Design the sequence.
């Protein structure tokens, strides 16, 4: 697996831009800030990463099935007792398969299972957790979690 680096810079109050080393960027802001739209919230980016990872991996794990029309919908659900975390992530793979083609349905289902059981780094990290190290401006470790 590759290592990654993202730089996030402040544009203004509650308005940030994340950039990768390949030149792509995405705006991150609060959903209720009309001056910072269009943008993604941090949780929406997590959902997008889960769906995007699933899609990229399904392209490999289910390549025997025509899945050009595949749509992946990721939703979050949280309750007060989730204590500031996402409680449940629901990933739905939506695709109309040819009626009666049990082979295609089985191959797609196998590909989706393999995606989340073995190959999707984002899904596996969310499921199993990751160690989080937070450093301040002087490189002092301010927080260790996970």
Sequence:
């Amino acid at each position: 697996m590759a290592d990654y680096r993202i730089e996030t810079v402040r544009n203004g109050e509650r308005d940030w831009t994340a950039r990768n080393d390949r030149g792509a960027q995405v705006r991150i802001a609060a959903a209720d800030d009309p001056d910072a739209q269009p943008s993604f919230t941090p949780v929406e980016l997590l959902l997008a990463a889960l769906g995007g990872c699933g899609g990229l991996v399904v392209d490999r794990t289910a390549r025997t099935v025509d899945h050009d029309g595949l749509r992946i919908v990721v939703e979050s659900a949280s309750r007060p007792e989730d204590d500031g975390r996402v409680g449940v992530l629901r990933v739905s793979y939506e695709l109309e398969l040819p009626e009666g083609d049990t082979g295609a349905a089985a191959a797609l289902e196998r590909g989706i299972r393999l995606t989340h059981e073995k190959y999707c780094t984002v899904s596996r990290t969310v499921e199993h957790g990751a160690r989080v190290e937070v450093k301040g401006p002087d490189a002092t470790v301010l927080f260790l979690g996970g």
User: Anything to note?
Assistant: The domain at 42-145 is CATH 3.30.300.20 (GMP Synthetase; Chain A, domain 3). The chain has two domains: 1-40, 42-145. The radius of gyration is 18 Å. The first strand starts at residue 6 and ends at 12.
